[in-house]
Input
Amino acid sequence: MSNANTHANTHAAIIAHSYLDTWNATDSLQRRALLESAWSEAPSYVDPMMSGSGREQIDGLIAAVQKRFPEWKSSLVGTPDLHGAYLRFSWSLGPEGVDGPVKGTDFVVLEEGRIKAVTGFLDQIPEHA
Output
């Protein structure tokens, strides 16, 4: 693997983990700090169940998911892919330490290395979720 590919993979993993850290931050001040540092000035988020524009709305979406699934955490599944300003990675959501019953794949558009737009796909949702 070339040095450029190693750097891209490392950068992709850092961004994906930062994104998941935002979704896992239950403290609203910590979550807002992550939104300010890792997300662009005017980010957007959309998946089949919800959407939001701006940090405040995205913060509200994350808080709503945390309320619905208390104690559950998002985890990275596999290796993220970075191509220019585009990032793709898969994740799972569930109790910590187990294979999460909810799984998805997110596509991220970056702006100056920060998250600008997220389009999420839900790959697996249990009936009771």
About this structure: Residues 3-24 form the longest helix (22 residues). The chain has one domain: 3-124. Residues 3-124 form a domain with the Nuclear Transport Factor 2; Chain: A, fold (CATH 3.10.450.50).
